[in-house]
């Protein structure tokens, strides 16, 4: 399986194509994700990892379009981004946005909004909220990560203020 690690930083993965804007040791491709197209052929990868990257990019839908382009049909992109309720995410001055569990609905074929983007993923293969350690956080994580309705309840109730989520980890299928 051909895999791409976008914005890898020091997370160099053997057997993957590791891309970063900085020529760190182990980086295979030096490229700025704000510049398009990505230096890969159409449908070149079966799996793309995009961990802690999209929150740094002003026009992240263009990056998602490029990820969609380089993914093979049925391929997955795994995205990890900060949840909007996590206060420590605001401490990083390079973060330009934060995300909700509903953010990636806009990029699905079933969004009902095909006029926004000229690409779409077929489904959300999986989604999970992560929480930093704490006494009640394992219980909140267990309750929240059950299904779509429990995610929505979490975000629309007092729980997101009482027990902020750290990250959203979502897998989109092409």
Describe the structure in your own words.
This protein is an alpha/beta fold. The protein has one domain: Rossmann fold. Helix content is 18%, strand content 25%. The two termini are 15 Å apart.
Task: Give the tags.
alpha/beta; globular; 174 residues; seven-stranded mixed beta sheet; 7 strands; 4 helices; Rossmann fold
Q: Would you spell out the secondary-structure blueprint of this structure?
A:
Elements: E1 3-6, E2 17-20, E3 29-30, E4 45-51, H1 60-70, E5 71-82, E6 123-130, H2 137-144, H3 148-156, H4 159-162, E7 167-173
Parallel strand pairs: 1-2, 1-4, 2-3, 4-5
Antiparallel strand pairs: 5-7, 6-7
Q: How far is the N terminus from the C terminus?
A: 15 Å
CATH class descriptor name: Alpha Beta
Q: How many β-strands, per DSSP? A: 7
Reported by name, the CATH topology is Rossmann fold
CATH superfamily: Vaccinia Virus protein VP39
At CATH's second level, what is the architecture?
3-Layer(aba) Sandwich
Share of β-strand residues? 25-35%
Q: What order do the strands of the largest sheet run in, or round the barrel if closed?
A: 3-2-1-4-5-7-6
Shape verdict: globular
The main β sheet shows up as:
7 strands, mixed
Total helix count?
A: 4
* Radius of gyration, CA atoms, in whole angstroms: 16 Å
How many domains? The number is 1
Structural classification: alpha/beta
* Uncertain regions spanning at least 5 consecutive residues: none
Proportion in helices? 10-25%
Average pLDDT metric:
95
> Helices and strands, in N-to-C order?
EEEEHEEHHHE
